[in-house]
Amino acid sequence: MSKITHTVKSHWRQLNIVMRNEYAHIFRDAGVILIMVFAPLIYATIYSLTYGSQVLRNVPIGVVDMNKTDTSRKLIEAIGMGPNTVIAYELDDMIEAERKFYERDIYGIIYIPDNYEKMLLGGQMATVSICLDASYMLMYRQAFQEMVAGINTTGAMVEFQRLIARGANIPQAKAITQPVIYQGHSLFNPYLGYGTFVMPPIIMLIIQQTLLIGIGMIGGTWREQGLYGKLKPKGSKRLSTLPIVTGKALVYASIYAVSSFYLLNVHYRLFHYPMNGNAATIAVFLAMYLFACIFMGIAVSTLFRRRETSLMLMLWSSIPLFLLSGASYPAEAMPRWMVQLASIFPSTHGAPGFVRIQTMGASLAEVLPEIRALGRLIVIYLGLSCIGIHFLVETDLADTIRDNWKKRIASRKTAARSAENAE
Q1: pLDDT tens-place string over residues 41-77
Q2: What is the pTM assigned to this prediction?
Q3: In a domain, 113, yes or no
Q4: Considering the domain boundaries, does residue 185 fall inside one?
């Protein structure tokens, strides 16, 4: 038998042993099953149900109408016609409006002065004041857009009636009051839904974080119990590192392939998220992303002496990594050093790449920069995983040899004492 054939067979035996051990430890460990099997499904479902309405509707606002005329009433009706806001209170003065505002009963105030109709009928510019709560950006945006749209519509109608009264015909009046008509088309997210915007990167982060925590828990367990040194097949003089890393990676990839298939097919269809990506493109990109996360998890897990350490280290990092991924705030607006720090995490490249593929329908060539970045991370973390596993294997083997010598010495001492007692 040639040396190459012997090496291949030895690696194959070690790979099988590692995979059997890994599957056994995962499915015998309730904590790991909860994190790696159920947590991705539970988190994705909870977030999707939370953002299920997609668009914020019926933001309550208050109106202080000091004019109390048909003209001011038409303005109030125009503002209340849209779906984003609802006129919750018609208040007598600003003191009462401020009280409702600070009690969080309303998130905006419209103040119509007592000279509103007089200014309009006199051909002068009327002023309407808007007070909005900008501490909650979604509330602010919805209320502001609806209020401004209602005021602009009312202003255009007043100007239109003035022009007609002065003798202009209808086409001329329309051309003057609406010199430019725009048509807006929201690409990839036609309803401007918040869930459609935020869920794809959240799903990618869920995959990464649950993988890191689960792999860290398994690594800590193996470290506590000294299991790395027990993987050596019978008849082998040494234990190779690459079969261990490869076997562990294939086990994690097989589990998350099933979870990812559910999330990106069944879950996406249940919650009506856009599915514009090509299946082959998604599969290739997701494979790169999974292996980058897996090798990072294995590399980091070699640093844990306890299984609980992964929970303490990884849980707090979820929100910072979501922010650093550029999903909630553009990376171009972040400090340069922060962007460079974020590049060491797979989610920084996986989240925007996945959004471009699944939401925008990008091809593999169009996300090539993200794929290259994930490929670099795979190479780097694979090397670090092999180094870390090699150190742990050598340490466990040394500990095993030392323990065996101690047992032999102890047994010899026991035998010697038995012989002395017998004499």
Answers
A1: 999 999 999 887 777 788 899 999 988 888 888 888 8
A2: 0.80
A3: yes
A4: no
